[in-house]
Each structure stands twice: as C-alpha cells, then as structure tokens.
C-alpha cells in the first residue's frame, strides 16, 4: 500500500465558520441566543464544529426546546453558561483521559505524592493536573512549563526523568485507544507536549474538577467538622464544610452502604470488614447524606444547594460533580435520568 494512502489535513474551523452553525440552526428552531453567549461558545470550541453543536444541543435540551417552537423563544443557559460548559466537559474525552490518568499497568502501586493543598495522587494525576492548570488549549507546552506547574502543585518535585517518562507513556497510552487521531503528542527531541484534540483541550480547561485527585480527610465520624473553604497557593480548591443536612443524613447513608455489602472482604468477618463509606471523604459523605434525607432522586443542582449552601452555585455544582464519582463507582448511588442521582437501594435478602 506504499504511496497509495495519503493523509489529508483538515484544518480547524475559524470563529466565523463556527458562527454559521447557530446562524443557520437557531432560526430553524424559531429561537434566539444572546450574542455574547454565541461568542463564548465559538471561542471555547477551539475550532471544533462538533463542540459547538454539543454546546447548543445541551443549551436547547436544558431549555426544553426539542423541536421548532410555535412562538419565538429566547434561549438562556441554565443555571449559567460556565456551569453548562463544566457539565458538558464531564462527558468529553473521558475514556482516553481516564486511560491517561491511570497510566500503564504495573505490578506495584505507584507512590502517592502529597499536593500543597492537602490532596494526594500519583505522578500521572500530578502531571495531568499541571497540564490542566496551564490551560494549553490547542497549543504546545514546553517541558519547563509543565515542570514549573508541578513545582507549584507538589510538595516534593519529581525527578526530571520521571516527568519525561510519564509524558512519553501518556503518548503511547492514548495511541492505543480507539481515537481516530492522537489526542496529545510528546516530542522527546524538543521536549514539548502538543495538545492535538479539541475535546481533550476543552476537558482540560472545563473538566478539571472531574479528575481531581482525592482530598485526604479522616472520616471516623459523620459529624466531623472541616475548616471553611480556602484557596491554596496553586489555585486549587479545598473542599468546603458540608452542610448540616448532609452530615445529619450521613448516618443513614452509612447504614445503606453497609447493607449493600459493597467493599466487604470475603476473608474477614462482617464486623472486621470496612464498609465502602469508610473510603469516602467528607464531601462525598455529605452528598450521600442529602440523598438519604429525601425519598427520591435529586438533580445535580438540587444536590449542590443542599450539600454546599454556603458556596456560589457554579462552585457548588462543580464540587458535587466531583463528589458523586466515587459513590457511583462503588455502587452507592445511581443515575436517575439526565443529571439526577438517587441513593441505590439495598438488595432484598
């Protein structure tokens, strides 16, 4: 097949070209959108028409606009434009991104590294956090930029060869995924990282809270209090103090956790085996507590209001999105439709 196959370079769309998507599509729905929002969407799409379509699709779904309206309708983002973009980022580039964060399979666990804001994570999480902090867009990062960001994030800076090895492995990992093109490329000779996929670049900017590593908090008591939210030097956020409602419901959620049997080790008795709730941090327990206090599902926005009432809505929504990941993975809660969650009921014995 030599000389019979040739790569065709498809350039990214310009902002004017992206603007044609809403200019053509919105009149067909008898809808209008603020020009400022259109400018935001076309700028954050990073040259990808698919991202623009994703933005307006979610915008219309949240507004209940599923077909051409009989009367003119002005569509506004719910609850805000930034919250909408943050929610969309959760669903983009996740399979490839999760593979990057997981790294190659190894016989032994990687060394947990302490972050300056109190979190811990291995070197793959640290490097991805550093890249996200730089918000590269569809650009190129030098090794020095990545290492400088790591210096701000971590208490102990990894060795130079460790960082280079991680970047090289990431390029290999993503090449094994089912992506049609590489999402990033590590240039070993010039020591620079190229972000080549708009979806990943968008996720790195707007979905950073989703892949945040664990914040280490002892959870021996559900009524344990935490210090008020503070901002670390690196700019990363520290979990806020959960609401009284979330803490009060945590006792009930613990009972449900133990009833499911999730996380129980077969070689130990039930009395000795740790429950899945023991692995959750205070924010995750607060979310479980809020779900256990109601008889039915709660939307992400309702959970945010109940679990973190003292925070601004956008920040609270972001923290709830991060706090439901582990309970979902452990089977403690379940999705109840689009953007809603409910406490998973214990199986009948």
What do you see in this structure?
The protein is mostly helical. It has three domains: 15-78, no CATH class; 94-211, no CATH class; 244-343, Arc Repressor Mutant, subunit A. Helices cover 45% and strands 9% of the residues. The chain is globular, with a radius of gyration of 22 Å. The protein starts with 14 loop residues before the first helix and ends in a 6-residue tail after the last strand.
Which terms summarize this structure?
349 residues; mainly alpha; Arc Repressor Mutant, subunit A; 3 domains; 3-stranded antiparallel β-sheet; 14 helices; 9% strand; globular
Could you give the order of the helices and strands?
Answer: HEHHEHHEEHEHHEEHHHEHHHEE
Question: What is the strand arrangement across the widest sheet?
Answer: 5-7-6
Helix content: 40-55%
**Structural class from helices and strands?**
mainly alpha
**How far apart are the termini?**
61 Å
- Runs in which pLDDT lies below 50 for 5 or more consecutive residues are 212-241, 247-278
Total domain modules: 3
Annotation field: number of helices:
14
Judging from the principal axes of the Cα atoms, what is the shape? globular
Q: For this entry, what is the oligomeric state of its chains?
A: single chain
Mean pLDDT rating: 75
Largest sheet: 3 strands, antiparallel
Beta-strand percentage range? 5-15%
What is the strand tally? Answer: 10
Rg of Cα set: 22 Å
